[in-house]
């Protein structure tokens, strides 16, 4: 696989990624592997049970339980009820088992009926658990999200979850360094979701495989933290092993607002340390890309891989070139004909949610489009807030009411239809405008067809009943 | 015949790029707290139709491929979700190795942690092997030598790369957790120094929840 040349043979750490690895390496195990200290380990109910079982089988303890936390996120139904009950016996057992394991080892848990329960990658940052300079891991591929705060986050498998529980470390294979520089300004009607879909469509689903990607440039600097979380979240869809954005004033304000313990002299020391978390001006990267934010338009996926994305104004591609076979297979599944425009494609379902796009800014963007309008009677539209905190915030701001008045279902927090493992699943042939991260075959249900897009674009599709360029509706709003 | 130095088995071609772990192990098989019965869910939508009847045209459902021990896959095999269930399912089904031009990064680590050999062949060699398997009138027999790091089919032979660590893990069956726990004193010392210089990282999960609960 990918060989990284540092730190055994290379020069002094100079990129942000190298600095984070250097500051967390307990031992160099060989040329490509270090024993890496993990500041925070985040768990869910479905990739941790076998890890705890393995730990118990070897009679091991959790080495540093207070650096670990868990949420019930993937299997929990999101029906709009106050007291939540998991009816599916197997899923209920996963939740009970998670609580049992967390209680036994003294691990923080956001349980089924905790007011702050939600999707792991939304809960951890919103309460200030993710801090610049950390290494954060989780048995979930979208752990790359945390790079938005200058923390190295990446997904691991269950064997590694067990390893982290037992040792608070990982045997970590070094990655290579990639920089993606985006200058310019995102045009109105576009978001970091459109930007990342554009980037993935250009570099491919394995364009960043083997790399940790540092996003930089004026366009990135002007993004809010939540927009950055969306960007880094989907870096894994280009195959990246991690994503990073150097912490700046925007990051620091976000973290300090959520971290009541970082005050006084501790705060002074933290600010000094965080200022060092950037790539040196002399750094070299193993690969570099540049993009112009001014080129970004609303993007949608047409196929079954996140890199099969095009501007909403474009037509479905023809099966030709080196990827002819992949295009044919994707079109067969998504039931689309080459040459037809994406604009006007009817959808039967709209899903606004997931660790990619279920934060308060995402819901505000959807509500902006929806305000004073009605959801098309031809479809079912759902909003699943990312967490209890996001839900409460949206309700207090009146956003929830706008969405409810328009005809959206306003549901309880969870992963829900992003991966559809909680019983909320689409039927064969249903086409869904979705703010999620994966349009894989069967992801939202066997034979169901997913079109990835931004929350504003999904809201627009909910109103019209078909995929449409949100800029048209936004323009009408301003008149 | 296979041992831990050599895998020799029937190889089935799965000519699909970006075959993600959602397809390898769909959501409905992820609800258990143990690892049992995952072979049943392996590649479910490809192996079975909507009425749960085997798709006769799918390679693994053909009688002559019943003893398949190796899969020949497309680029970025196992991309997507981190679910290790995909690897457990492959192992339980009897798959000992996957040969592909490239692998999803988390899948690759998961495979190595479970004794499933992920063989990353150079692009051209992978394409040639796939073509040979697709054209072969009888199931292709492939031999993988883990000491010599070669893949051999009736008409091709190619070297492949495996890191020394992964090769040793495979040949010597090392327990990774025991190996890391041997460094427990170093880990504890590292943490003390780390928290002395960055006290805001100590107990970050527990302290945050305690604050939230008293708010």
Summarize this, please?
The complex is a heterodimer of chains A (479) and B (215). Chain A is built from 16 helices and 19 strands.
User: What characterizes the major β-sheet of chain B?
Assistant: 7 strands, mixed
State the fourth-level CATH superfamily of the largest domain in chain B.
Aconitase, domain 4
**What Rg of chain A, in angstroms, do the CA atoms define?**
22 Å
Query: What is the CATH top level name of the largest domain in chain B?
Result: Alpha Beta
Under the CATH scheme, the architecture of the largest domain in chain B is: Alpha-Beta Barrel
Distinct helical segment count of chain A: 16
CATH architecture of the largest domain in chain A: 2-Layer Sandwich
Q: Which sheet architecture does the biggest sheet of chain A show? A: 5 strands, parallel
Shape of chain A: globular
CATH class of the largest domain in chain A: Alpha Beta
Oligomerization? heterodimer
Model description:
The complex is a heterodimer of chains A (479) and B (215). Chain A is built from 16 helices and 19 strands. Chain A is an alpha/beta fold and 479 residues long. Chain A folds into three domains: 185 residues, Aconitase, domain 3; 86 residues, Aconitase, Domain 2, CATH 3.40.1060.10; 180 residues, 2-Layer Sandwich (Aconitase, domain 3). In chain A, helix 6 links the parallel strand 9 and strand 10. In chain A, helix 12 packs across helix 14. Chain A is globular, with a radius of gyration of 22 Å. With 215 residues, chain B is an alpha/beta fold. Chain B contains ten helices and seven strands.
């Amino acid at each position: 696989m990918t060989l990284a040349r540092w730190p055994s043979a290379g020069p002094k750490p100079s990129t942000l990624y190298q600095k984070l690895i250097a500051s967390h390496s307990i031992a160099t195990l060989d040329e490509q592997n270090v024993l890496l200290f993990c500041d925070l380990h985040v768990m869910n109910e479905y990739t941790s049970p076998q890890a705890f079982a393995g730990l118990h089988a070897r009679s091991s303890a959790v080495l540093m339980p207070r650096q670990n936390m868990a949420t019930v996120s993937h299997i929990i139904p999101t029906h709009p009820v106050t007291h939540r009950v998991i009816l599916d016996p197997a899923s209920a057992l996963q939740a009970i088992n998670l609580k049992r394991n967390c209680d036994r080892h003294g691990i923080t848990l956001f349980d089924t009926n905790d007011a702050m329960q939600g999707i792991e990658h939304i809960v951890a940052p919103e309460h200030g658990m993710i801090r610049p300079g950390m290494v954060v891991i989780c048995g979930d591929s979208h752990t790359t999200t945390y790079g938005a705060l200058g923390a190295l986050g990446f997904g691991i498998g269950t064997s590694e979850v067990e390893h982290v529980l037992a040792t608070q470390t990982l045997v970590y294979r070094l990655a290579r360094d990639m920089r993606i520089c985006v200058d310019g300004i995102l045009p109105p009607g576009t978001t970091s979701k459109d930007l990342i879909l554009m980037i993935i469509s250009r570099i491919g689903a394995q364009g960043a495989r083997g790399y940790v990607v540092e996003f930089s440039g004026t366009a990135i600097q002007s993004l809010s933290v939540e927009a950055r979380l969306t960007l880094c979240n989907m870096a894994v869809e280009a195959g990246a092993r991690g994503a990073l954005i150097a912490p700046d004033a925007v990051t620091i304000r976000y973290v300090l607002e959520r971290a009541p313990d970082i005050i006084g002299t501790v705060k002074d020391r933290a600010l000094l340390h965080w200022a060092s978390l950037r790539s040196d001006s002399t750094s070299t990267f193993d690969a570099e890309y540049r993009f112009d934010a001014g080129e970004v338009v609303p993007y949608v996926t047409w196929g079954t891989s996140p890199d099969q994305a095009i501007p909403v104004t474009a037509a479905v591609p023809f099966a030709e070139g080196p990827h002819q076979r992949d295009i044919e297979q994707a079109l067969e599944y998504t039931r689309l004909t080459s040459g037809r425009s994406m604009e006007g494609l009817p959808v039967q379902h709209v899903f606004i949610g997931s660790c990619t796009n279920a934060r308060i800014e995402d819901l505000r963007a959807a509500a902006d489009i929806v305000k004073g309008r009605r959801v098309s009677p031809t479809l079912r539209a759902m909003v699943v807030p990312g967490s209890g905190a996001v839900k409460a915030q949206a309700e207090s701001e009146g956003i929830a009411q706008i969405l409810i008045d328009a005809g959206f279902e306003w549901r309880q927090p969870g992963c829900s239809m992003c991966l559809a493992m909680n019983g909320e699943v689409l039927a064969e042939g249903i086409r869904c405008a979705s703010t999620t991260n994966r349009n894989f075959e069967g992801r939202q249900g066997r034979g169901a067809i997913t079109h990835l897009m931004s929350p504003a674009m999904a809201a627009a599709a909910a109103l019209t009943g078909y995929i449409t360029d949100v800029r048209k509706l936004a323009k009408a709003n301003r008149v | 015949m296979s041992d831990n130095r050599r895998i020799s088995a029937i190889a089935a071609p799965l000519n699909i790029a970006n075959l993600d772990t959602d397809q390898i192990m769909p959501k409905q098989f992820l609800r258990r707290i143990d690892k049992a019965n995952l072979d049943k869910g392996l590649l479910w939508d490809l192996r079975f139709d909507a009425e749960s009847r085997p798709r006769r045209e799918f390679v693994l459902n053909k009688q002559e491929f019943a003893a398949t021990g190796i899969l020949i896959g497309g680029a970025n095999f196992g991309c997507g979700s981190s679910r290790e269930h995909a690897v457990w399912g492959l192992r339980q089904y009897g798959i000992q190795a996957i040969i592909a031009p490239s692998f999803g990064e988390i899948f690759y680590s998961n495979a190595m942690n479970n004794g499933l050999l992920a063989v990353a062949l150079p692009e051209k060699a992978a394409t040639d092997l796939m073509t040979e398997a697709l054209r072969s009138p009888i199931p292709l027999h492939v031999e993988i030598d883990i000491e010599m790091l070669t893949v051999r089919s009736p008409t091709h032979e190619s070297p492949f790369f495996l890191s020394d660590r992964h090769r040793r893990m495979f040949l010597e069956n090392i327990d990774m957790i025991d190996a890391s726990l041997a460094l427990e004193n170093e880990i504890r010392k590292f943490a003390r120094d780390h928290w002395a210089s960055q006290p805001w990282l100590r107990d970050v999960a527990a302290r945050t929840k305690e604050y939230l609960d008293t708010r």
